[in-house]
Design a protein that fits this description.
Helices cover 69% and strands 3% of the residues. It has helices at residues 2-10, 37-51, 56-61, 67-72, 77-87, 96-110, 114-130, 134-150, 154-172, 177-192, 196-214; strands spanning 13-15, 21-23. A two-stranded antiparallel sheet has the order 1-2. Strand 1 (13-15) and strand 2 (21-23) form a beta hairpin. The longest helix is centred in the last third of the chain and has 19 residues, at 154-172. The relative contact order is 0.10.
């Protein structure tokens, strides 16, 4: 972990074949897959410690609040609370890192009470509109779309899911974990809207991508 954190701190971005840039804090520079589990959470801790003392403009460019980070933290309430306290200390409420921990609260609430989670996300809306970080806004759109889907409001969720998938493919590459996750959500929503053929086609694309990247096993 020390070596990975040191490399990310020294040179965060790695450029892949299609020109997309991936963060070494979240992604293996060799296979371009997102880190998961305990390793992912520890790197998030290290990333926060590294960036919290940097000028806001540099920290913002790190896209701390990407969907991958939020998902990595979803089962780590203690880490989320720690980040929340540190984020709220001396930072604007519109800062991407503060918005990240607010979204994490909604993510924790989603399974137990999706209506309350949606209300929490709605309250974040005005602050999110003032946020200049595109990655943060896309993470927000993804969460809103997912909660709307859970609530059976797939028609409202569809345009958000499409925007997330298109953004992920453009910025991270079509083979990235973010692109696959966003496309998978898009497919689920299409199926729930009765557009089964389109949804299955999207799922087939995701499966083909994961098989190509990870192998048949």
């Amino acid at each position: 972990v020390d070596c990975l954190a040191e490399m990310a701190a020294r040179d965060e971005w790695v450029t892949v074949a299609d020109g997309a840039q991936l963060s070494r804090w979240m992604t293996c520079a060799t296979c371009h897959q997102l880190y998961t589990g305990a390793l992912s959470v520890e790197l998030i801790r290290r990333k926060w410690r590294h960036h919290r003392n940097l000028p806001v403009s540099r920290e913002t460019r790190s896209v701390l609040s990407s969907v991958a980070t939020a998902m990595a933290l979803k089962d780590e309430a203690d880490v989320a609370e720690q980040l929340r306290e540190e984020a709220e200390r001396g930072m604007s409420l519109d800062h991407p890192s503060v918005l990240l921990v607010e979204m994490d609260r909604a993510l924790h609430l989603r399974a137990r009470n999706p209506r309350a989670a949606l209300e929490m996300l709605r309250e974040l809306g005005p602050r999110m509109e003032r946020c200049q970080d595109v990655g943060t806004r896309m993470a927000y759109a993804y969460l809103v779309a997912d909660v709307l889907r859970v609530l059976g409001r797939s028609t409202e969720a569809l345009p958000l899911a499409i925007a997330c998938a298109e953004h992920a493919q453009k910025t991270s590459g079509s083979d990235s974990e973010l692109a696959c996750t966003s496309t998978f959500l898009h497919a689920l929503i299409l199926i729930e809207l009765g557009r089964v053929r389109e949804g299955k086609l999207k799922l087939t694309q995701v499966l083909a991508t994961r098989t190509r990247v990870l192998g048949a096993d």
